[in-house]
Amino acid sequence: MIPLRDTIPSRTIPFVNYAIIAANALVFLFELSLGRYLDDFVFQFGIVPIRFVEAVQTTHIDASVIFPLFSSMFLHGGFWHLVGNMLFLYIFGDNVEDRFGHGRYLFFYVLSGLAAAFTQVFINPLSEVPMVGASGAIAGVLGAYVLLYPNAKVVTLIPIFFFVQIAELPAFIFLGFWFLMQFFSGFMSLGVGADAGGVAWWAHIGGFACGALLMPFLSRREGFPKKA
After folding, report:
1. What is the pTM of this model?
2. How many helices (H) and strands (E) in the chain?
3. Can you tell me the distance from the alpha carbon of 152 to that of 169, in angstroms, rounded to the nearest whole number?
4. What is the spatial distance between Cα 123 and Cα 126, in angstroms, rounded to a whole number?
5. What domain range includes position 82?
6. pLDDT tens for residues 127-186?
7. DSSP of 85-113, one letter per residue?
8. Which residues of the chain have pLDDT under 50?
9. How far apart are the first and last CA of the chain?
10. Residue 228 maps to a domain
11. Which of 17, 35, 46, 90 shows its CA 20 to 30 Å from the CA of 102?
């Protein structure tokens, strides 16, 4: 299922959300310019779980260990990886920023991304595959959104074999289905490596859970309706 838009207009200009989208796009353009040096760049600035775990175990924690926790949120493995992530962020992020305020939204986004990274490292600590992408942080946005606006309508493109159907689904159904798919895929990946298929499923799960848990502490309630 592909979200096209939601039915809740943002009451403020989501400066932070736009800035995050722009930063991801600019970093991806930089990635494209690297040519044969791209793999080295990804290994340096993506999160490699085994490298992180070894650094913690030996207490050799420096900038080369800490910085990838943040830089990895802005790297992507391909054009469609970027587009898919930014589509979800564009549709759902503005309303969460609306309710949190700009500063708290940025804090929330980064914290969700860190929670996602730590979850994936915990589940698959021996992986040598770099983890990149904004999807863990965006999963946090989805976790907050589904609690803030459970009855909001998400205009969704649903492929059915050779046909497509456009339907309005309640947010709790669309995002609930999305989370169940992540959980099922993550559970199935445990026997073959938690980053099976090149997707860090447990990062999505950890980010979503973090977003849902943080929402009550960061949401501004006055003057903002909870339902669409």
Report:
1. 0.90
2. 9, 3
3. 8
4. 9
5. 2-218
6. 899 999 999 999 999 999 999 999 999 999 988 777 888 999 999 999 999 999 999 988
7. HHHHHHHHHHHHHHHH-HHHHHHHHHHHH
8. 223-228
9. 21
10. no
11. 46
Measuring CA to CA, how many Å separate 95 from each of 5, 86, 168, 173? 12, 15, 18, 18
* 53 φ/ψ sector (left φ>0, alpha ψ -120 to 50, else beta): alpha
- Residue at 52 is within a domain: yes
- The reply to whether 102 falls in a domain is yes
Domain total in the chain? 1
The CA distance from 224 to 228, in Å, is 10
Q: What is the largest CA-CA distance in the chain?
A: 55
Give the integer Cα–Cα distance in Å for 135 and 37.
24
As a whole number of angstroms, the distance between CA 204 and CA 129 comes to 16
Residue 50 counted as domain residue: yes
